[in-house]
Specification:
This protein is of the alpha+beta class and 181 residues long. It contains four helices and six strands; from the N terminus they run αββαααββββ. Helices cover 30% and strands 21% of the residues. It starts with 10 loop residues before the first helix and ends with a strand.
Length: 181
Amino acid sequence: MRRFCGNENYGHLKVMLAFTRATFTLFALFTTYVCTGQPGNLHIDTNNTVVLPFASVKTFMDKGFKTSVLNDRDLATVDSLVLKVVHDNHIGEDLRAVNAGATPAMSLKQIKNIYNRQVICYADSHGDKIVWVLYFCSSEQPINSLKNGLVMVDDGGDCFFNFKVNIKKRTAFDVMVNGVV
């Protein structure tokens, strides 16, 4: 009769357990990436930000554009440029935005309290990572309404504005502030 009294007899079980853990971890990461188009470590405030996958807006893009992965540093770059966009384009002076609490000298915290946003990340034909950000007065466009796909607004004054950020160059471009109703 053979006695089992040491870890050496259970080595194969340890290997199987480690393999199972690794497989589960890879599956969880893969599922997160496939479902959202973003890695699982992206930290966003879901109270005012919706990240849309590139595939959902591909029809609006040039043929040479491709999907790219958004990260926390990219969002920090967007946040650093939104203040300049707001100031340079006099966002917060329109009556509708003022009624929502906007001012031309808004802080980043005020912007995040007043506006919801959709974010789309892609690589342009030169390979530069571009983040397209669309802002909506939260009083006019609740966050849940932004989760279903790209929302384009024709009027509404500066309650609605959008711009693109070239992450590599750290520049904002294609700034569009909506016209007054």
